[in-house]
Amino acid sequence: MMNVGIMSGRLSKQIDKEIQAFPFQEWQKEFENAKNCGFSSIEWIFDLKPNPISNEKGINEMNDLMEKTKVMVNSVCCDYFMKKQLFGDNTTEIEQSCKVLKKIIKASKKLGIKNIEIPFVDSSSLKNEKDKKQIREILQKMIPLLDSNMKIILETDLEPKKFREFIESFQNSKIKANYDTGNSASLGYDMKEEFEEIGRYFGNIHIKDRKFQGDTVPLGYGDVDFELFFNELSKINYSGELIIQGARQDLTENYIKTCKNYLKIVKQYVDKY
Questions:
Q1: Which residues contact 79 (CB under 8 A, 6 or more apart)?
Q2: Beta strand pairing status for 216-217 and 209-210?
Q3: What CATH number does residue 130 fall under?
Q4: Domain assignment of residue 179, given as a range
Q5: How far lies 44's CA from each of 39, 111, 124, 157, 234, in Å?
Q6: What is the pLDDT of residue 253?
Q7: Contact 121/69 with Cβ under 8 angstroms?
Q8: Percent of the chain predicted with pLDDT > 70
Q9: What total of structural domains would you count in the chain?
């Protein structure tokens, strides 16, 4: 049975109408909420907000909560690097971001986190070969810091063939691809082509729905062909997690009910395929 997790923040009140943000004021309760909803894991968010993985006290508290609830944190989504980039012309910012990434890797070892996911989308898109070269050089230096079971997962908006070429340019099995169903639909990519080009490199999958060239919407209301997705997924022997990253509604939504409904939808497809 494939493990289904939830993105951090979805089981807490929305913060400042942000679609995705670390719930720094009430992150502890998400473990119990995830357990009660039936999720096996939480994908952590590391952004610009205060975060427990930044200190020993927080790391110990997270480990205690994982032990108590059996809800694991297997991956961390480093949204921090969408604002404080790892490439570009600002060398001071790049140096600081590299230090932050090293700290995330160090903390992840203590938490048993296997996947360090770095998004290169929207404001942090890789626009040219210079950007790719910078990222390749930086991440090559990070790979030796990983434990044997850890991977660096890249999320990009590159076209499928170019994404495959970028992954392969590292020539290292520690570098894997994130696949995001909603982002794919928004970009208008051919799902079968994506599976053919990068399916063998999938290390992490985000489940959400988006309109073509539009925003995130509740599962089933966008342009993602979930039947096709789960059918293609069943062909590649994927052994990672499915992380639900569904749309937020508004500040008054019943977020627990919403997440339970998303889990029900995803499990129906998992059971079918």
A1: 20, 45, 46, 47, 119
A2: antiparallel
A3: 3.20.20.150
A4: 4-272
A5: 14, 11, 19, 21, 26
A6: 64
A7: no
A8: 98
A9: 1
